[in-house]
Every structure is written in structure tokens, then in C-alpha cells.
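Priority: medium. Attachment 1 of 2:
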């Protein structure tokens, strides 16, 4: 019922002008056969090459893990895709701990060419971490000698980047008029701010013009305001103050008006949802119950869903910009768009971030089919939804309902789910679902969980887990896999599990 109503609202929501979006392309990506050579990528930060040596690390990855594509994190202010292991996390047995050197800062890890950034205030994002060393320039020739491809990983993450000139001007504005630049840990940039859009175009132009790379991998895991105001996150358990939902800046107001969305009504609707969430967390049940009241708010304020769609499409416009810019510079360039895991087990996100809206934005989509950490994440999502819109349902019944809606079966009980994780069959099914949605119009690269961080009591990756998940993705017909999140946190024996699966797959010809 919620899914049906949500779909109806989103269909009525406004969208960005079709002329500014990437036109649909005709291309075919048939299912992989055993004799085909799949793309076997690994996400890796520049520090790993500094710590372990370019030649030695590339040789090991190619020989032991079957890697033929390096997804080298080149721009980020987040420590999810770059940086050494921070204190308090397990040491994987290679590289160096963050505590052994300076704390992670982040930014642009290649050489930044100023001439490309004249149209944005975000013109100086150089990363100080490596003392000016350009790891991309070092990795490229070494990878070429081995026949390996190199993609630049770029991430929309600005943690602790408050010394970046221009960032304050680009920060989002929340529902109460507060800038996200004032947050203690992380700023978020407004996707409709012209400076932000110009920055991503400039960064793409710089990397594709200055280096003979094979393509880009773009990471952006920001959901629209509707899921954020509900606190429907899989990454943490608990619903806090959701009034910080964004963005409600003048740029959003302007675009909303152009699209026929009443900006003030949208704000009023989101304020209603904030009050609703606060009452739910305080266990103040409305007369009609939690779910019906949620639907009443959506019914009374159709602007909520329309505004949510506008924010999502602002994000996808940047994705399209990066793609078209990279192709204009180098026709043979390939673009990978990382799709966050919420598209997998949140029915609302399955609607808002549908593969049918994504296939024409990239040559490859990389869904985060991280099965080990998925147990913890799915359980978190269920508990958070159970704290608000589904508060009238017992948690186990909500879990059962979502499993039916999402097509999951054979999972552990809700209490045991974090420790059990999801089976490799989840990777197989999600890969199949993504392929069915894109219908060979773009390629699917399954993201494989290799020691993605979880709580100590949650499932920890084993070599057999990586082997089974990698093989499941290839057997489902994926055009390849990307070992994730970053090499610095991966145990080598788990990477060897992926290598075994790849060797077995190739031997099936």
C-alpha cells in the first residue's frame, strides 16, 4: 500500500527539463558467458600504493585476486573510499594504520589544473595527505604494462572539509534555514547550486583531459529528503532529530517554482513530517495510527513527494553531467555509477531510485550488493521504519512483510540477521533484478563486500563469503564485479577468495 501510494505521488512529481538530461542511448550488454572476460575491479585509495608500493601491489592484485581494473580513489573528503584504517578498527595485515601517520584530510589526490576550475568557487581542493605526490600519474603507466585498466573514483563526500575555500557558499540549507556547513562532522553540497554542478564538470574535465584514464567511478549515496526526514537509514540504528533534512536553499526554491512546486507548501509538509516523527519517537500514537497518519500527510501535501523527486533529479543531473562531459573528451571513456544499497531493501528507494531512471546515465551501474554487511543494514532499516511509519506493527511482522514485498526468502530471524548477514543468493538475485530492469541497455557490475565495516557482533567477511558472492554475481550474468569498499580495510585472504571464484568462472568455458 505504501509502495503504491508513493509511486503515484512520484509519478505526479515534477522533473528537471528533459533537454538537460542525457538522451537515451542504444547499446547492448548481453549476459556474461563463461568465455567472456568480465571487468574485475577493486576500489583502492592512494595511500595503499604509498604504503605497499605501486608495482608490488598491482602484481599481487592481478595474480592473487584476479583484478584487471583499478578503481583508484582520486577525489573524496570521506574515509569510506580512501585513507588508512583508523584507530579502533581491525588491522587487515597489510598497509599502515592511520594512527601511524597524520590524520586523513582528503581532497584531490592527482595534480589539480587550475584552468579547469574558473567557473566554480570550489577551485582549490588539493589533498595535502601525500605531500603533493600524484599517485594517479604513478599508477597509470604501471597498470598499463600489466594490461590493467584504471578508473578514477570520485565521491561526493565532504567530511571535515571546512578549510576548503568556497565550501560554505556551496553547502545545503536545512528545513530550519541552517547551513550544513555548521555541522560538526560533515558538510553536504547543494546539487542545484551552479558552483557545485560546475565543480563536478570541472573535475571530470581535468581528469579526462589530463590523464589517459579508462573512465570514472562516481559515488554519491545521498537519499532524497523524504527518507531522511523519516530517519529511514540502514547505516545506523535509531531516529534522531530529522529537522536537519535538506536542501531548502534559494536555488531549490527557484527550481521548484519553475517546475510548478509550491516551495512553502513543501516546507510545511516536511515540517508536518518532522513533528510526526518526533511524536512517534516519543510514543505519542496519533488517533488514526502511525501508518494512516503518514499517508494522510502525503495526501494533504502532494508537494512532499514532488519536492523529493526534484532533489533526486538534481543529483542525477550531476551524474548525467559527468557522463556526457567524460564522453565528449574521450569517446572510449567508460563511466560507472555506484548505486547505494538502499535500492535493494528499502521499497521507497526502489521507487525513487529506479534502475529504469539510471540506465542511460552510465555505461555501467554498480549496485552495492554487499551481502555480509546487509544483515546489519537491513535490520537497522527495519528498526528505524518500525520507529515511525510502521510503529503499529510488531518488528518481526514488519520484517516478514518487507521480505514478501522485496522477494526475499530463507533469511535468518530479525534478531539473528546482523550476525548472519545475507546469503550469496542475495547477490545473485539482486544482480538478476538489476539486469532485468536495465534490459541490456547498460552493464551491471556487482559490488562485492570485502570487509565492509560492521559492528563486532555482526557478520565478518570470510574467504568463502567473498568466493561465493563473486561467483554468484558472475553466474547471474553480471558484466563484472567491483571488490568494495576499499583495499586498505580488506583482508588479503578474502581477496584470494574472489580470485578463486574468478578462476573457476574462467575455467567453465
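Attachment 2 of 2:
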Amino acid at each position: 500500500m505504501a509502495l503504491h501510494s508513493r509511486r503515484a505521488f512520484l509519478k505526479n512529481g515534477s522533473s528537471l527539463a528533459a533537454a538537460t538530461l542525457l538522451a537515451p542511448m542504444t547499446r547492448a550488454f548481453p549476459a556474461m558467458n563463461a568465455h567472456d572476460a568480465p571487468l574485475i575491479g577493486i576500489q583502492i585509495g592512494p595511500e595503499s600504493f604509498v604504503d605497499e608500493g605501486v608495482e608490488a601491489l598491482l602484481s599481487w592484485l592481478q595474480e592473487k585476486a584476479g583484478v584487471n581494473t583499478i578503481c583508484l580513489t582520486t577525489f573524496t573528503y570521506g574515509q569510506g573510499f580512501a585513507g588508512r584504517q583508523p584507530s579502533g578498527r581491525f588491522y587487515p595485515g597489510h598497509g599502515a594504520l592511520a594512527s601511524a601517520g597524520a590524520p586523513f584530510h582528503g581532497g584531490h589526490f592527482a595534480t589539480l589544473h587550475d584552468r579547469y576550475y574558473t567557473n566554480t568557487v570550489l577551485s582549490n581542493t588539493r589533498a595535502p595527505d601525500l605531500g603533493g605526490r600524484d599517485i594517479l600519474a604513478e599508477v597509470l603507466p604501471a597498470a598499463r604494462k600489466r594490461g590493467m585498466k584504471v578508473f578514477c573514483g570520485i565521491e561526493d563526500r565532504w567530511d571535515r572539509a571546512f578549510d576548503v575555500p568556497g565550501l560554505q557558499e556551496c553547502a545545503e540549507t536545512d528545513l530550519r534555514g541552517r547551513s550544513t556547513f555548521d555541522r560538526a562532522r560533515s558538510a553536504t553540497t547543494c546539487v542545484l547550486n551552479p558552483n557545485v554542478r560546475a565543480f563536478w564538470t570541472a573535475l571530470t574535465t581535468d581528469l579526462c583531459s589530463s590523464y589517459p584514464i579508462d573512465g570514472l567511478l562516481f559515488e554519491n549515496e545521498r537519499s532524497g529528503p523524504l527518507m531522511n526526514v523519516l530517519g529511514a537509514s540502514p547505516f545506523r540504528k535509531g531516529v534522531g532529530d530529522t529537522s536537519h533534512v535538506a536542501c531548502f536553499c534559494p536555488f531549490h526554491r527557484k527550481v521548484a517554482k519553475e517546475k510548478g512546486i509550491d516551495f512553502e507548501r513543501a516546507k510545511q509538509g516536511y515540517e508536518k513530517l518532522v513533528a510526526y516523527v518526533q511524536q512517534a519517537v516519543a510514543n505519542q500514537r496519533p488517533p488514526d495510527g502511525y501508518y494512516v497518519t503518514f499517508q494522510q500527510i502525503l495526501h494533504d501535501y502532494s508537494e512532499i513527494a514532488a519536492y523529493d523527486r526534484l532533489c533526486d533529479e538534481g543529483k542525477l543531473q550531476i551524474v548525467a553531467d559527468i557522463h556526457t562531459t567524460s564522453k565528449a573528451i574521450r569517446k572510449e571513456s567508460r563511466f560507472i555509477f555506484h548505486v547505494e544499497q538502499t535500492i535493494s531493501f528499502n521499497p521507497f528507494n526502489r521507487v525513487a531510485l529506479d534502475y529504469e531512471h539510471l540506465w542511460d546515465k552510465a555505461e555501467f551501474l554498480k549496485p552495492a550488493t554487499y551481502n555480509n554487511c546487509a544483515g546489519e543494514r537491513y535490520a537497522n532499516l527495519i528498526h528505524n521504519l518500525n520507529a515511525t511509519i510502521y510503529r503499529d506493527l510488531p518488528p518481526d511482522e514488519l520484517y516478514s512483510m518487507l521480505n514478501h514485498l522485496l522477494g526475499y526468502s530463507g533469511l535468518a530471524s530479525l534478531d539473528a540477521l546482523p550476525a548472519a548477514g545475507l546469503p550469496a543468493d542475495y547477490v545473485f538475485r539482486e544482480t538478476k533484478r538489476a539486469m532485468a530492469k536495465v534490459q541490456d541497455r547498460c552493464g551491471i557490475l556487482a559490488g562485492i563486500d570485502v570487509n565492509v565495516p560492521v559492528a563486532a557482533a555482526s557478520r565478518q567477511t570470510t574467504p568463502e563469503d567473498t568466493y561465493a558472492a563473486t561467483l554468484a554475481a558472475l553466474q547471474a550474468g553480471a558484466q563484472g564485479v567491483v571488490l568494495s569498499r576499499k583495499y586498505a580495510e580488506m583482508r588479503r585472504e578474502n581477496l584470494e577468495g574472489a580470485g578463486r571464484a574468478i578462476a573457476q568462472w574462467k575455467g567453465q568455458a
